[in-house]
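A protein record pairs a chain with a discrete description of its three-dimensional fold. The following entry can be read in just this way.
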Amino acid sequence: MKKIEKFTEGSIEGQGFVYRVQETPSWWRGPSDSTPNGKRYESPILSDVHHLVLLLKLKEVFAVYTSHPSDWRRIKRGIDDGRVSKIKLVPAELLNGAFTHNDWAMGAVWMKGLHNSVETKADSKQLTGLNVRSAIDPFGDQTYHFSSGRSKVPSGNDHETLGLSPGKHRIWLGQSADFADFCERASWAMGLLSGATELATPIEQLAQPLSSLDKLGIPDEVSWAPQGDRDSWPPETVEAVDLLDEMSIELVTTNSNIEKVEGGRRLDVVIKIIDQGASVADVTLEIQYSGTSSPVAMTVKRSISADDPSIWEVAVETIFLAEGWGKLRYGNGCVVSGDRAYLPHYSAKPFTAWTWVDSFSLDGIDVTKEKPTIGGGTDKRKVDLDRIGKTGDDSLFAWIHKHWGREREGILLCDDGSGEIADFLHLAKCDQDGESVLTLIHAKASKSADAGRGLSVSEYEVVVAQAVKNLAYASTETIVEKLRNLSKNARVWVNGNRQDGASYFADQLKDRGHKVRLRIVVLQPHTLKIRYEIDPKAATASLKARHAQLSTLLLEAEAACRSIGATFNVYASKN
């Protein structure tokens, strides 16, 4: 290690050091083809890499430059846990206020999603342009929060492009011409903090961080998703992702209790790591809520000793603490992403295209059973589609068969299976104008038949995402082509009577030409009318949040359907 003596350059002071590390070349994968993916055996060749660390000071403000991406993480962690004392991190809100402004253009923004992962909505988004503030979708992007961006900051008669990642307490500038230029630009950026006012988030249309952590209790769900390009990740992040990528994780809070501590509240939760249904490790995560809107503090508690963490503890620590890629979800709609708590800004407009069904119980339908089972058994994995609508079938498929197959004139086809267009397709007879309605029906059973069940967004996320995804196959020509490839044993009913094969449906649809109106139906009986049609003034904050979240999900799907000229309806339980 070579020390850089204390120096003064203009108004800035600094010192630092250069150190050398030997790293395994990125191309080295091991001695043979049998080497597992991602596993690097000890290389006979090592690359010498030199890294620079600089500490800069301008009045009472310090800045650290690190060429290795892991060095700042270690320094930040030392500040967080008190090993580095007498200094504190500049609050993210102050970084926002110093380096962004509503009137300043932003050339790029990276956003992280607070919604659950679904195929039809990105986990994260990147926008670039002259001013991406004008490109934000105030409806579709309201479930994302600001992660980082490039701001065009006024400087004299021009502007300087400055990168900002407030959650990681980092900024970045463009390439410097020389060391004097580097110090001048660093001094300018550090000087912007003087007199700056705090700003909750750089882009107001995105989700806002909570002003207080009082709403946070015991979380319900945990998830994570990687961000950025793999080539830009430090080695420890690559190893953590490779370890956890094929696993699933669940949150266990059975023994979690919130206790008051000095300055706030704390609790322990367990992240259970599962490999193909079998539990392989439990990692304990300690969560601390301060009495203010400060970051949510998280620590991985060692199960063995502080000097000998397990590979799973290291992986969770890297993903959740170092990278900030983890998410904790709460029953009241709040989400902790990284170390910040948010309440996503969902539309207050209610979804209105409901059809409230009062015949589920009258028809003897078990709303928790989606498809008929072999012999009417209780194992819902053993499906027998030949029993649709027959005596003893109490599934949602039986309800569809009755109300679309027997009670409505037209052709009903069951397309359940891999590569399906929908669970069912129904082609109505021509009306007086010679037009027909083609209905694509996507069914999903409720997880509960309890008469007191409340609103649930997760019950709808997967089936709605499937319905929106399959809009890509919604043209008459595409549907006809796909139906031609169905087995001759496809289940088809004409006015309630069984018809062999899918070709008849395809022929009839083709003959209608463009005189077809498309309708998308989601059948999910979980929501009760009395639970959805609430009085906003009397509802609790938690209920209003779930109501708004569910409405937003369905309104987004409705907008997607409308964009291709289709209508969208959701069938749920009247009582």
Summary: Residues 541-563 form the longest helix (23 residues).
